[in-house]
Amino acid sequence: MKHIAIVEDEVLMREELSDLLRKAGYRVDGISEFQDVTSRLLALSPDLILLDLNLPGINGFQLCRELKQKSSVPVLVLTSRDELHDELHALQLGADEYLTKPCRKERLLSRIANVLKRFEGRANLLEGNGYLLDRKTYTLYIHNSSVILPKNQGKLLEVFLTHKNEIVPKETLCHAVWGTAEFIDENALQVNLTRLKKTMSELNMNQQIVPVRGSGYKLVISLFTERG
Amino acid sequence: MKHIAIVEDEVLMREELSDLLRKAGYRVDGISEFQDVTSRLLALSPDLILLDLNLPGINGFQLCRELKQKSSVPVLVLTSRDELHDELHALQLGADEYLTKPCRKERLLSRIANVLKRFEGRANLLEGNGYLLDRKTYTLYIHNSSVILPKNQGKLLEVFLTHKNEIVPKETLCHAVWGTAEFIDENALQVNLTRLKKTMSELNMNQQIVPVRGSGYKLVISLFTERG
DNA sequence: AGAATACTTACATCTGCTGAAAGCGCAAAA
DNA sequence: TTTTGCGCTTTCAGCAGATGTAAGTATTCT
């Protein structure tokens, strides 16, 4: 049974949605507490998130972006904001569908089914800048083709993709590759990073791993492949 | 550059759409002749099909269904039919998006980009009975997970999936695995087939490779994993 | 310049895929 | 029931690619 999380502050609306979805055969969780929403939602690991944009205290767009950055869960935005630029913005941030209230029940259910179907089998795909990474096999989809990354390189890239725009400390990377945080072999990490960088440049990926002295590494977008 | 095919009978509308899409950086083909549309469209092998439902002589829904059955090309329906049941029907038949005319340019472009993004990397995916096979890396997607098949097993499965419901002669299989048709080592083939069968059963795939005495092999659906 | 940090290269080891070989099992024909 | 041939299984050695080690080079900051 598929599992849907509802993010909606108005109690009545939330109840109505819950009912509708339960009757349609989904397992439903409603979120009513909006502190730490992102982590709370991801902890539920639903098959789909139904998201209202007007929430108390937090920015719905921001939430959408965070969800998409930290996971690959499908997000369906259901909101009363019917401005085109809101729709475009949400889609830009990674929303998978955008519907405006009021919305016919049938349409909502149909679009939900549509989105769920789209994501079948894609559960483990992590999104990069113009490419996708399978978290299980480390198959990388880029430029309409695909390559398998060696395990270590895959694990490293995975960490970077789950920490976009953050500085990732070496310990985190070591932990991701070798499991335990016991002994950190900086050199082994170094070698593996070099290898990842090499394959990334060979694949013309427009992202680069750059060192941050003393702290760790960061994945940044690089418009130019070679330094002049 | 992504390639879009437009199926629309009104000349003015078609021209306008073409212009818009070209300016947005797509390569565009307009279809104005509606005999044999399906095969004609698939011959173009576009990255996306923009489909009107009201066409002279043919049924738009039927066309949509055919396209989806014979290929995995994304279809965006753009129509003046604004009845909910039309939308539901189209989505049911496999349409990937449904927009009604009149439609804001920005929305159309945004949704097109959205659909294209969804299909990124899916170009090389071959469809099996409840699973997907990447023809390049031989990554197999099944049961919401993924595995990498060894090259030979992947090649063999690929042949079977491109010859559904046909008896595949050994030569074909050998040719697929070792390239040349020079010398056929029946035993090597045998071993590799056994290996593929083993992984398929370990993965609980509901398809089985069965021998056809003297001719070759065939991939059949098996409802039951073990023979009683 | 000197120290600290970051990178490169080469090599030995290890894992897992592959084909060869040899022998077993089963189904159709005698 | 026996024979015959085709299909299947298992084992083993070879090979390729991924990994960690080690030693040496380059860069950056002070």
How would you sum up this structure in a few lines?
The structure is a homodimer of 228-residue chains. The first copy, chain A, has 228 residues and is an alpha/beta fold. The first copy, chain A, contains 8 helices and 12 strands.
Offer a few descriptive terms:
Arc Repressor Mutant, subunit A, about 40% helix, about 230 residues, alpha/beta, Rossmann fold, 8 helices, four-stranded antiparallel sheet, homodimer, DNA-binding
**Which parts of chain A are unreliable, with pLDDT below 50 for 5 consecutive residues or more?**
none
What's the CATH architecture name of the largest domain in chain A? 3-Layer(aba) Sandwich
CATH topology of the largest domain in chain A: Rossmann fold
Supply Rg of chain A.
20 Å
Largest sheet of chain A: 5 strands, parallel
User: Largest beta sheet of chain A: what is the strand line-up?
Assistant: 2-1-3-4-5
What is the residue-averaged pLDDT of chain A? 90
Q: Specify the helix fraction band of chain A.
A: 40-55%
Order of helices and strands of chain A: EHEHEHEHEHEEEEHEHHEE
Largest interface, C-beta closer than 8 angstroms, per-chain residues: A-B, 31 and 30 residues
CATH structural class of the largest domain in chain A: Alpha Beta
CATH superfamily of the largest domain in chain A, by name, is Response regulator
Count the strands of chain A? Answer: 12
Number of domains of chain A: 2
Tally the helices of chain A: what do you get?
Answer: 8
What general form of chain A does the structure show? elongated
Oligomer: homodimer
Distance between the termini of chain A: 55 Å
Beta-strand percentage of chain A?
A: 15-25%
Q: Which structural class do you get from the secondary structure elements of chain A?
A: alpha/beta
